[in-house]
Each structure stands twice: as C-alpha cells, then as structure tokens.
Amino acid sequence: MKHLKLVLALLLILVVFSGFWSGKSKKEIKEDNRIERVERIKTNNKTLQLLYKYAPEAKEILFRSYGYATFSNVGVNLVLLSAEGGKGLAHSNATGINTYMNMGSGGLGFGLGVKDFRAVFLFENKKVYDRFVNSGWEANAQVDAAAKYEETGGSINAAETVAPGVRLYKLTQNGLVLQATVQGTKYWKDKELNKY
C-alpha cells in the first residue's frame, strides 16, 4: 500500500510539473502560445542579425537554401556533467511557414560554467528540411570550425556540414564559436506552439 501511495504521489508531481495541468483556461494557454511564438520570431531575427554581422556571406547562402532553423541555447557544465536546453524555429524559404521547435542535450565532459549560444542550420533541399522538422533530428557529430576573423574585417565561411545537405553556424554574442559541438543533441517540434 505504501508503494502505491508513493507511485501515485510521484505521478501527481510529474503531472503538475510537466505543465499538463496548469490551471489555465484554453484562451489563456492560446494567448501564452501566441506570445511565445512572437518571442521566438524576435529571437530568430536577432540570431540572423548576429550571423550576418560575423559571417556576412551567410546571408546569401541562407536565402538560396530551401530553409533554415535558428536556436537559442543555454548550456551548463557542472564538473563532469553537461546539459543544454533551447528553443527556436525552422523556417521554409519555399513556403514562408515557421515550425516552432525545441532542443536538448546532455553528456559527460570536464568543465564548469554557463554558456549562451545560438545555432543556425541551413538546409539545402526540401528532403533534409522536412526530415529535420517532421522526424526530429539527433546530432551525433562534433564539428570543429576553424573560424578566424581579423580586425580588418576579413571573414571565411565558417559553416560546417553536420549531415548531408545540412550546414551549421554556431555563435555567441562575441562571434562564431571555434568548436561547434552538436554531439548528442536532439531537436523536435514543439507540439503546443504549432497548434493554430
């Protein structure tokens, strides 16, 4: 009997903290989702401006791509454990439609600190874009981008191919990240935000 009470208590806690029962009306939830979509679009625009600042050639490549995805991520390293969580959107240049997405990862690695970074994926064609958006995507690669910028303003194309037809720029407020690790990162659709 004690085990049953414990299991029920744990399930109740899980339901409350998962947001399944938030105590909000459908109208309030719909408004919250609308606000979150607007915030993600603003963050997307800021991320693209940051990309164009540090990699000007990316603007033309992005417009030629079938679509792109931007993510704002926060990563935490605590001695041997690391975790990242973020949110973003995928945009089809062909249809003009946004799909709201989330990302997360965890792993082992020595370090201590918090980092805020942005990721921009460029999709060469409809097939790779649709696979990313509809099936989610799990990155199992580590990208080492040797991005060097000089004071004179010279730049290189610092995107790295992380899968066939998929290129990645990883940025911080200070510029392009030299080592773009995407290993063990999962991307998926945000079911609530994609309801209209």
In words, what does this structure look like?
This protein is of the alpha+beta class. Helices cover 32% and strands 40% of the residues. It has helices spanning 2-18, 26-54, 58-64, 126-135, and strands at residues 67-92, 98-123, 137-139, 142-144, 160-163, 166-172, 175-176, 179-181, 185-189. Strand 5 and strand 6 form a beta hairpin. The termini are far apart.
How many helices? The count is 4
Unreliable stretches (pLDDT < 50, length at least 5) are: 14-18, 141-157
Distance between the termini: 44 Å
Structural class call reads alpha+beta
Task: Supply the key terms.
196 residues; alpha+beta; seven-stranded antiparallel β-sheet; 9 strands; 32% helix
Describe the secondary-structure layout:
Blueprint: H1 2-18, H2 26-54, H3 58-64, E1 67-92, E2 98-123, H4 126-135, E3 137-139, E4 142-144, E5 160-163, E6 166-172, E7 175-176, E8 179-181, E9 185-189
Antiparallel strand pairs: 1-2, 2-6, 2-9, 3-9, 4-8, 5-6, 6-7
Give a short summary of the structure.
Helices cover 32% and strands 40% of the residues. With 196 residues, it is α+β, with helices and mostly antiparallel strands. β1 (67-92) and β2 (98-123) form a beta hairpin.
